[in-house]
Amino acid sequence: MADSDQERTEDATGKRRDDFRKKGQVAQSKEVGTAALMTFSLLLWIFYAKSFWMELDGMVRSVLQMLATFEATSLSAVNLLWSLAGIFAKLLWPVFLLTLVVGFFASFLQVGPLFTLKPFEPDISKFDPIKGMAKFVSKRSAVELIKSLAKVSLIGFVAYRTVANEFDAALTLVGLDLSQTLLFLGKVSYLVLAKTCGIMIVLAVIDFAFSKYEMEQKMKMTKQEVKEEYKDTEGDPQVKGRIRSMQQQAARKRMMAEVPQADVVVTNPTHLSVALKYDRETMDAPTIVAKGGDHLAFRIREIAKENEVPIVENKPVARALYQQEVGEQISEEMFTAVAEILAYVYNLKKR
């Protein structure tokens, strides 16, 4: 059955998540950045408004004074424009800095450290008109449309209710001076923006949760894909089994090659065989050079007989030695028993 015909029921593996991340495909909501920018901009404006208006008032005054003695030449016009640009840059630099910082952290907190150029690589499939049209009728497009309509409707309704609630108070502004009118308008605007920020934060949380869910669904795998990935990363089980079998055969051949140099073979007598070797000059204790059970035990005894290696039957010692690995020195608990066996063998060889 093809992968496309199988249901994606398996959770994404770590490798698949890394592959998606390298391609820049991560759960990220634009609403988070918008909500964060609006909220922090409003907070900045609360503390910066007074300084901003004072700076703006001073700028207007200086421009008016400059225009009183302004001589219209190309050089003076350029100088005036540069002066105005410098003044506006001085007024607006906190807003620009806030936009950069909030935009960076809004993205960083959602996806973490990520730098990839994969989305910018040329892809011919992106120019496919059929796929392009499909995006306009996709589930994501429908969700975006519904979300945009809901956002506009909700914010519009809240703004309307806020202004409507202040309508009676606005009627009392008739006959008041301009400063009080501007103060009232600023208060109403602040209420509208504050409620809008609250709505945007709620929508951002919902949209980010939906983006996470959508990405998890997109990354899900079929059972066949999981098997194929396991083969790619861990290796084909059949191949690994074959390699393991070949390694065992090679190790067994090396082990059998050590039997002719052994000093003694201790048996069970028929089910187990353990070959020991001891060199006083190079070894601290006797070492197991070969061991085996059943057919392998029989083969060890055959090689020992062919090479005149003594074979000693001792069931308890054979069983205890069989528990240790080939190449290991015997444990201290076996020193006495093995020493007696070696003494017996040395006497046989008259050594």
UniProtKB/TrEMBL annotation:
Which keywords fit this entry according to its UniProt record? Bacterial flagellum biogenesis, Bacterial flagellum protein export, Cell membrane, Cell projection, Cilium, Flagellum, Membrane, Protein transport, Transmembrane, Transmembrane helix, Transport
Which Pfam families is this protein grouped with? Bac_export_2
InterPro entries assigned to the protein according to its UniProt record, in alphabetical order: FlhB, T3SS_substrate_exporter, T3SS_substrate_exporter_C
Q: Does the keyword Transmembrane apply?
A: yes
Kindly list the places in or outside the cell where this protein is found, as annotated in its UniProt entry.
Answer: Cell membrane
For the region Disordered, give the residue spans.
Answer: 1-22
Q: What is this protein called?
A: Flagellar biosynthetic protein FlhB
Species annotation: Malonomonas rubra DSM 5091
